[in-house]
Design brief:
Order of helices and strands: EHEEHEEHEEEEEHEEEEHHHEEEEHHHH
Number of helices: 11
Helix content: 25-40%
Strand content: 25-35%
């Protein structure tokens, strides 16, 4: 086996398609069988369209929504509006991940599914990794890509510093229908200690996803519904969504311990991709594009190593440098922007100021998005 990819989300599936297309023997270990829902804003910047086309995975057959406008509301309901220079598309992870999975199967990628990776160790003498699956099987790939998401027990085993730091954030996602919502708009609505995003996906559905804190949840009895009624409904735009929308499944998808702390793109000879390498704040709306772009960078570095154009140290140095050059500034800007929102007073002031400064809004967007690749 040339490459084992731990995690079959966007980054893992794109890297599998990329490396298989370059002639390498690729396997993916994923914990859950497809299709399944993930907590995700489900908006993708158009910067990824050329790459997906090169992978033979243009999402057009899924009927994604075309998105070209942005709105941001303060907790009291004041609204900032701006065009999206590059634009994007909306598609559910339920549909997109399944689509990429089927493409990867057709390309000859092997899947361990469902499978949990219990441990990864590098054997320097053999020049390979020893990867232990929870069912007792052991794999020996030459290259390992870690594309397993925001936080996993594998981070503990790899002794990644961020894992020891508790994160206050949790994410909640629904799919819904909401007559009258413009399908070309992605809207972000602030509330105390959080913000929510809503945008169209395939069919006549919308993705409604929000980030808040465990403390916000705890303060309202530990139930999502009570917190929504007491906190989110104070923003009139969010109150209208909850009152007027048809929610398409009875319970939301929820994820805890979302960390925006800096991470390293290479850990113990594992090339990290997607959220495992670094997570941009949802307010910046570009995590899915970053996952795909990171897969492209990791695949290029791994290919040069497997083709014996460079050694392992060269592969790791090249990938870490490319990753930092492409995403380091985006993540720093994202963390800074995050600090402007969540508190009612500061959020109101930020939205009020930015409404009259459209050049600043577009400059921030450019700093958190990349060019087509």
């Amino acid at each position: 086996m040339d490459v084992l990819i731990i995690g079959g989300g966007l980054a893992g599936l794109a890297a599998a398609l990329d490396l298989a297309g370059r002639g390498h023997a690729v396997a993916v270990a994923e914990r859950r069988p497809y299709p399944f829902h993930r907590v995700c804003g489900e908006y993708v910047s158009n910067e990824v369209r050329p790459y997906l086309a090169r992978l033979g995975a243009d999402p057009a057959p899924l009927g994604p929504a075309a998105i070209g406008r942005f709105e941001l509301s303060s907790p009291a309901g004041r609204v900032l509006r701006s065009p999206l220079d590059l634009g994007g598309f909306g598609v559910s992870r339920y549909a997109l991940d399944e689509f990429l999975y089927r493409r990867a199967l057709a390309a000859g990628v092997q899947f361990y599914l469902p499978a949990t990776v219990a441990g990864v160790a590098f054997d320097a003498a053999a020049g390979r990794h020893a990867v232990a699956l929870a069912d007792g099987r052991t794999l020996a790939p030459r290259v390992v890509l870690g594309a397993y998401g925001k936080r996993a027990n594998l981070d503990r085993q790899l002794a990644r510093p961020f894992f020891r730091q508790r994160s206050p954030y949790l994410g909640v996602k629904y799919h819904l229908r909401l007559p009258g919502h413009a399908r070309d708009v992605i809207a972000l609505h602030n509330f105390r200690d959080g913000y929510a995003g809503i945008s169209a996906i395939e069919g006549d559905k919308l993705c409604f996803c929000y980030l808040t804190t465990r403390q916000n949840l705890k303060a309202h009895g530990g139930t999502v519904a009570a917190m929504e009624a007491a906190v989110l409904h104070r923003n009139p735009h969010l109150r209208a969504i909850f009152h007027e929308a048809e929610f398409l499944y009875p319970q939301p998808e929820v994820i805890n311990e979302i960390s925006f702390a800096p991470k390293q793109p290479v850990e113990q000879h594992v090339l990290m991709c997607g959220d495992a390498a670094g997570l941009i704040t949802p307010l910046c709306g570009n995590g899915m594009a970053m996952a795909l772009h990171g897969a492209a960078l990791a695949s290029a570095a791994a290919h040069d190593f497997l083709a014996e154009k460079t050694g392992r140290a060269g592969m790791e140095t090249a990938y870490a440098g490319a990753w930092q050059a492409q995403f380091g500034a985006r993540l720093r800007v994202g963390r800074a922007v995050q600090g402007l929102f969540g508190g009612p007073v500061l959020s109101e002031a930020a939205v009020g100021a930015l409404r009259h400064w459209p050049g600043a809004v577009r400059a921030l967007m450019r700093r958190t998005h990349g060019a087509a690749f």
